[in-house]
Amino acid sequence: MKRTRSKLFFERAKDVIPGGVNSPVRACKAVNSYPVFFERGEGAYLIDADGNRYIDYVCSWGPLILGHAHPNVIAEVYFASKRGTSFGAPTWLEVEMAEIIRECIPSMEKVRLVNSGTEATMSALRLARAYTGRKKIIKFDGCYHGHADSLLVKAGSGLATFGIPASPGVPEELTAHTLSLPFNDEEAVKEAFEKHGSEIACVILEPVPANMGVVLPKEGFLSFLREITQRYGALLIFDEVITGFRLGLGGAQEKFGIKPDLTCLGKIIGGGLPVGAYGGRAEIMNLVAPEGPVYQAGTLSGNPIAVSAGLATIKELKKPGAYERLEALSKMLEEGLKEILKDLSLPYQVVRCASMLTLFFHDKPVTNFSEAQACDTNKFARFWQGMLERGVYLPPSQFEAWFVSLAHTEREIEETLRAVRETLREIR
Ligand code: KE4
């Protein structure tokens, strides 16, 4: 495939935008490539600046669970925009969004809308520290919660030392209170609480991580975290920016039957436009300004156009059969991948949770970040390039999730599997 215009646009972009992109992973460095510039999306497809068509499994990194340009989403965005773009004052739509979130995720007794997942997690951390009067937080290696300073800590700092900044510009004072532990490691969490229990404000995690690739929580791990945080008076924060409305209307907390104290949302609730949210027990949320003293604000929080896209998306997901359809298509993809690996005697791992999955180029199960890091990322890069040439657009990183949407059909899954088989043969 020729991608002349993408290359041209990228050269111009690099002259005026750092790295030529507005978010690092889009630069495709991890797959030794350059970004494809897209012109439009149609259902399960993306069309690039050179007119090439691709089956899309990035789905804007999760939000587009209905696929691109869903007519009902576009219509709601159109009608909302005709009424004006932003008022800096409440609209009924925000109330409807908060109510539908509470209806689907009852642990979110009160909800504050923001503009991104980063804002949601950053605000939830501030609230947890205010509510508990404590400073320390526990996160897990490989879980990504956006780019708030406290959360940009090097993986694997473990118990030995507290958070080491993962980025220049983050003062160690801000990561010194962050402990990053191996995911699925109950002993490490127990030890942290035995050592620092009275200082720990919260444990924040992706209940089903998707930022080290998709990794499943071990049996009992989530309930263990619920119990130990309760025991030590720390809050349990589920970052469901990806899993919220992805694993089901109630997200991971419904799937695993765990009630966190706070939940962060994003992506799908914006339907492709900028919406994030955080919420939880009313007694905690009532600390948020102007009800309480914990300050958090945003010019465009609850923006009516963005919320309209999110509401239209959730309304489609609430239709009978939506998640069953996603499950059937995703299962077909997973089973097809496993069959190809078996036929080609390749030892790679396929991990799926609902309509998100990862093909790990690793010969052993992946249950945490250090295991994920052992993947053959060069082989993944060649796989990604081969799939792109065959018209399939995968996330340009081994440490991300493939997303299936309601716009995908058996036809796209079959074409994808054909491309996988040919590419794996080619690069083996
Ligand atoms: P945003 O600030 O990008 O809206 O959300 C941050 C965030 C928070 N929590 C989780 C679990 C997330 O996955 C994210 C963002 N996800 C990444 C990719 N998995 C977004 C892609 C990007 O950074 O460009």
Structure description:
This protein has 428 residues and is α/β, with parallel strands linked by helices. It has two domains: 4-69 and 321-427, Aspartate Aminotransferase, domain 1; 71-317, Aspartate Aminotransferase, domain 2. Helices cover 37% and strands 14% of the residues. The longest helix has 22 residues, at 322-343. The protein is globular. The two termini are 22 Å apart.
Strand content: 5-15%
Instruction: Quickly count the helices.
Output: 14
Task: Give the CATH topology of the largest domain.
Answer: Aspartate Aminotransferase, domain 2
Mean pLDDT: 96
By secondary-structure content and strand pairing, the structural class works out as alpha/beta
CATH superfamily of the largest domain: Type I PLP-dependent aspartate aminotransferase-like (Major domain)
- CATH classification class of the largest domain: Alpha Beta
Radius of gyration: 21 Å
Please bin the fraction of helical residues.
Answer: 25-40%
What is the N-to-C succession of helices and strands? HEEEHHEHEHEHEHEHEEHHHEEHHEEH
Q: Can you name the CATH architecture of the largest domain?
A: 3-Layer(aba) Sandwich
Taken from the alpha-carbon principal axes, the silhouette is globular
Largest sheet data: 7 strands, mixed
**Which strand order do you get reading across the main beta sheet?**
4-10-9-8-7-5-6
Tally of discrete structural domains: 2
